[in-house]
Fold this protein.
Amino acid sequence: MNSNQAWQHTTVLRAEAIDHLVTTPDGVYLDGTFGRGGHTRELLSRLSAKARVIAIDRDPQAGEAAPTGETRLDDPRFSIHHTAFAQMLPTLAAIGIAHVDGLLLDLGVSSPQIDNPERGFSFRFDGPLDMRMDTTRGQSVAQWLETAEVSTLAEVIREYGEERFAGQIAKAIDRRRQERGPIGTTAELAEVVAGAVKTREPGQDPATRTFQAFRIFINAELEELQQALEASLDVLQPQGRLVVISFHSLEDRIVKQFIAANSREVFDRRAPFAQPKAMKLKALDRTKPSEAEIKANPRSRSAIMRIAERTDA
């Protein structure tokens, strides 16, 4: 069995996202987070022979899954590029595309990433403590933990994990390093966190927030998201659609604030009689998975999808 076939992924809001994304069947569309291609496949099924779909993913295994995965994606209208979605502008420029009719961002980690112990994303499986989206570059979490200051650990856990026990966890990690050496596996980290977190919400593992925090930090996920959203204003055609699916409050807050900030006219207080700068986006909708989808795929429970449209400005 190919390694890309071993772990399956159920696409969240598959039809609903494409319903909002497609404004013309002959258009050019960008899937900024290809994952295992569920949204891209749905998108291609809605488009004409004249259309084009470009996919981006920083995970090299996603690109490998596109032509060789369980469901082949061998379509002349489609191409995929190994890069972060914050690099969409130079990526599109390199293939001669200036604007697209729709941009989709499905944030967070995919099921194959979570369920593959070798990737180190989950405390449910023991494996190397990696968590990099792009395994070809950058530090793993294990490498970062070897030298990170206690104050830095606490700040990352608090800010990106929204963890009220951040200080205690950071000190526990430091004690573990001093007493037994580096933390190299997911099970080791989960054990340290469990020893430092004495209470937790029912049904939630003590390590949940810390693993989220380290993953977001090591991949600069929030910074990447902000850069991609800013780039969307340049890449989208007038009436082009921006569709973003978020899975936790930190991401959704950034998306919500970005759309809100660009969905109103801006007045220059220094020139009260000047014409205001026109809004760049029009907020269209916010939706969540149906009860039926959540029942079939519990991992979709926290998803929030926001849709906006590029104005003529």
